[in-house]
Amino acid sequence: MAKVLGMGNALVDIITMINSDAILDSFGLVKGSMTLVDRDTSNFIHAETAGMPKTKASGGSAANTIHGLAHLGIETGFVGKVGVDDMGKFFKKDMQVNHIKPILFRSMIETGRAMALVSSDSERTFATYLGAAIDLSADDISRDIFEGYDFFYVEGYLVQNSEMLEKSLRLASEARMKIFMDLASFNVVARNQDFFNAMIHKYVDVLFANEEEITALTETTPEAAAMEFQQDTEVVVIKLGAEGSFCVSGGEMVRIGVRPSKPLDTTGAGDLYASGFIYGRIREQSLETCGKMGAILAGRIIEQEGAKMDESHWEILRREIRSLES
């Protein structure tokens, strides 16, 4: 079966259930966004939320998606950069335990962490200290990293090092890999419109975005934007949260519903949707089936805290996913 290589910010998620959205205002955070913060601000937020329920897990958008694919039985690898510290060890061990090949570079900077603040309506707001993750550079990236893989999945959050991201996309393209990109938070996209547009038109085969992200990129409707981008890509997938998703390919638009669920925490919903969709593409399923596979995983992950599920849940999900295969 095809192998998937992921690349993204190697972060440890610290997921915190907040008791009031007023705390977001006190931190200067926009609800639902991802805001980059320095180490001191990250430590301050962690201290100020000390009495609230917390869980810890390896994270980062692309890492979450690769975890999902690994649990669906796909052979995977992950490229990132961590610190020489306990969080870096935690991240690497989590990769190995979940049968993901870690291709991790080391930095003297602390391992990055994302404070995921989850509101009572399950919306999550990230305050992210990139730490060592931002130290991943173009000099780290070589052609041999991509050898033996068929698909390349990359997160738009790597735009903070545009030289490295562009080199990675170019090398993956030269290796004849199918390239999947998931855009970053709408505020990150808005600041980097020209770069994202250039990379998508030149390299990307399958583009994932949510409604706010694609609007920030194009300043038009999600439907119009998807039709525009699919002229240069194979597929454009727009995630609409509680309203489902739609996929566009070859001028055809396919709308996908949601899996009925009781949301607790939306952390990882888009990442796990991508896992299901990519699995479907690997298995050469229809757009509708790929979208349904994504919806199944997204619908399940939002019923619990964090972006990871234990093996008992995955065993059920694998059966449900495979029952859709034609």
- Element-level helix/strand string: EEHEHEHEHEEEEHEHHEHHEEEHHH
Shape: globular
Return the average pLDDT rounded to an integer. Answer: 93
Continuous helix count: 12
Output the radius of gyration. 18 Å
Strand order of the largest sheet: 6-5-1-9-10-11-12-13-14
Low-confidence stretches: none
**Range of strand content:** 15-25%
Structural class: alpha/beta
Number of strands: 14
Distance between the termini: 17 Å
Helix content: 25-40%
Main sheet properties: 9 strands, mixed
How would you characterize this protein structure?
This protein has 326 residues and is of the alpha/beta class. It contains twelve helices and 14 strands. The protein has helices at 22-27, 39-48, 61-71, 86-97, 162-174, 186-191, 193-203, 211-218, 222-229, 269-282, 287-301, 311-322, and strands spanning 3-7, 11-17, 34-36, 54-59, 75-83, 100-107, 112-118, 124-129, 151-155, 178-182, 206-210, 235-239, 245-249, 252-256. The protein has a nine-stranded mixed beta sheet, sandwiched between helices. It has a five-stranded mixed beta sheet with strand order 3-8-7-2-4. Strand 12 and strand 13 (245-249) form a beta hairpin. The radius of gyration is 18 Å and the shape is globular.
